[in-house]
Amino acid sequence: MSAENNTLVITKNEMFQTFKKILLKHGLEEKKAETCADIFTINSLDGIYTHGVNRFPRFIKYLQGGFVKPDAEPSLVSKFGAIEQWDGNLGPGPLNAIHATERAMSLAAENGIGCVGLANTNHWMRGGTYGWQAAKAGFVFIGWTNTIANMPAWGATDAKLGNNPLVMALPFENEAIVLDMAMSQYSFGAMELAAMKGEKLSVIGGYDVEGNLTDDPNAILKSWRSMPVGYWKGAGLSLLLDILSAVLSGGLSTHEISKEEVEYRLSQVYIAIDVKKLGNHSAITAAVERIIEDYHQSNPISEEKKITFPGERVLNTREKNTASGIPVLKNVWEEILSL
């Protein structure tokens, strides 16, 4: 443990085994416990601690509260051509998300494109997980989820919008290009992590209770006034993602989810495209490589700044944490062990 930042270093295997043991204790059968434990571990290994190790205690509390049903399975509601609607039946969000991504890929393999709307599900944790899942299997992926209201409409002071994360991914070399972004400048997980570390945000992230712009995560978490990316554009995109998630899944919208005591019964959309069905398939790999090569030739603002494509830093963090262990805040790990 470092006395300076109060951090432990946990190996990948120790984290996985700890998560699995706790999940089994709280009602997940063996295979489900292993899959969920693997997702939380890989998210942490990749440096997405906010939706990995730091989020794990909340997931357990939702299991304890009955908001996540450990033995629930998704069920097909309707199907037409390349479109399916499923009910998540309040099962574990990551397991429902893996199933929906697999169904979208199966539909895409058959039809060229597949779209799955998933209603009545739970937090999918790191949305990029499913972008990686599809892209590594050779598919283009577009997916999003709505959330509880946690962001104001542009020009408003009260939260009516969710920060509704959006994921876009495609295969690249032996890995993938994966964009995973919330509609707020910072996800609430990122702000919670900064607050736990006593750090400021690197740029303005929202407003305090007096309406002043601030980089203080505690002030934003208190005011519930996060800043939408692109100002009014991000707010508008958030609204449309919420509408489409509710329409395409047949599930609840943000304003309906926000009537609940916690964030659950979410609506999500998963779209996969089989690029092998495209007429220009043989030229796609070279075209993407040329785009990234040109992108990497950007002139950085400083010698220390490296220009990376979405998902590239994840690969670097994964390599580092695999070799050196996963950094975990001591109080977070102690809370996990108490579960």
How would you sum up this structure, described in words?
This protein is 42% helix and 20% strand. It has helices at residues 12-25, 30-45, 56-65, 93-111, 128-136, 188-197, 217-223, 232-249, 254-257, 281-296, 312-324, 330-337, and strands at residues 7-10, 75-80, 83-87, 113-121, 139-145, 151-152, 159-161, 166-172, 175-181, 206-207, 213-214, 266-274, 326-329. The chain has a 7-stranded mixed beta sheet, with helices on both faces. Strands 1-13 form a two-stranded antiparallel sheet. Strands 6-7 form a two-stranded antiparallel sheet. Helix 1 (12-25) packs antiparallel against helix 2 and helix 6 crosses helix 7. The longest helix is centred in the first third of the chain and has 19 residues, at 93-111. It comes from Emticicia oligotrophica (strain DSM 17448 / CIP 109782 / MTCC 6937 / GPTSA100-15). Keywords: Oxidoreductase.
Mean pLDDT: 95
CATH topology of the largest domain: Ribosomal Protein S8, Chain: A, domain 1
Largest sheet: 7 strands, mixed
Roughly what percent helix? 40-55%
Given helix and strand content, the structural type is alpha+beta
CATH architecture designation of the largest domain: 2-Layer Sandwich
Rg over C-alpha atoms, rounded to the nearest angstrom: 20 Å
The total of helices stands at: 12
Largest sheet strand order? 2-3-4-12-5-8-9
Please provide the count of β strands. 13
How many domains, as an integer? 3
Alpha carbon gap, first and last residue: 21 Å
Q: What's the overall geometry?
A: globular
Name the CATH superfamily assignment of the largest domain. Malate/L-lactate/L-sulpholactate dehydrogenase, NADPH binding domain
